Amino acid sequence: MRAARLTAWRQPLDLTKVADPAPGPGGVVLRVLACGVCRSDWHAWTGADPDVVLPMIPGHEFCGEVVAVGPGVTRWREGDRVIAPFILACGRCADCAAGHQTICGDQAVPGFTLDGAFAELIAVPYADTNLTPLPETMPPEIAAALGCRVTTAWQALTGRARLQPGEWLAVFGGGGVGLSALLLGRAMGARVVVVDVVEDKLTHAARLGADAVVNAAQGDAAQAVREATGGGADVAVEALGIEETTVAAMRSLRKLGRMVQIGMPAGDHAAMTLPMDVLYSGQLTLQGTRGMPSWRYPSLLSLIAGGQLDLSPLVDRTIPLSQASDELAAFDRPAPPGVAVITDFLN
Description:
Elements: E1 2-5, E2 14-17, E3 28-37, H1 39-46, E4 62-69, E5 81-84, H2 94-97, E6 121-124, H3 127-130, E7 132-133, H4 140-160, E8 168-172, H5 176-187, E9 191-196, H6 199-207, E10 212-215, H7 221-229, E11 233-238, H8 243-251, E12 253-261, H9 276-281, E13 285-288, H10 297-305, E14 315-320, H11 324-330, E15 339-344
Parallel strand pairs: 8-9, 8-11, 9-10, 11-12, 12-13, 14-15
Antiparallel strand pairs: 1-2, 3-4, 3-6, 3-15, 4-5, 5-7
Helix pairs in contact: 4-5
Domain Enoyl reductase (ER): 10-342
Organism: Cribrihabitans marinus
GO molecular function, one term: oxidoreductase activity, acting on the CH-OH group of donors, NAD or NADP as acceptor
């Protein structure tokens, strides 16, 4: 099969032919229909993620068609079209039994702990536990975004912050996760303010229904959010993983506000200095989130099927596999609005 492999940090991916994968016990092989290019892939590409051992095929937000089924699989057969979360939980441990698959101690993460979906085919373990049918009306490029950005934002807003209708949501970072949080927040009845430093992203967010936008390059972003929301956001999500925006998100909250750290702190930002006086005096709630357990897919898909959520504006461009390296390098600087999804794996 054709694949794009990471063989050296910060270097163009190696477009090459590798052996087709085979399904292990409990696993399946998918023909990849679409795979997003995500900032988390960029973390792997830069060498900031300690789980990645070279060579590695990146790609963790994907959907595909089952082409081979391993022993022990009962829910899937060849020809089924499925969505996969990026955290593949074992389904057997105590954490999985309690519904906390995202902290499974035996989890597999495509593109990080095993080869991912920047390839024509991908082997997916724990298939019965993790895979969800791809709705017939959902384009593959939209479904691919569900596997990381949309699901992570959904878990942050519903499983962590428990965002309520009428509340103010402040989104720090207008990339894929940030735009997902904007679209989901609006569908849930919240008012949303988006913060970024790229004017094109803010214009894009406003077109998608943001009630207010803030350019953090032009002044105190936290103060601007407090002014726009009449005293501070009820909920803030940080979607970049850097200290500056994490601090601003905390300072943007009203008293008793809730903040969710979605962005992955890595490299120089793995350790941060945070204003704990703001946490204490404001009696804030600060939580982290990573991924979404697979059992939460039905609630998200119901929101989409009910016509309350249109994710089509999320995907800005579809690309061939040969352009994946360019998309990864673009994260070195403020990236263009919208999400890039690989849909052509032969070019």
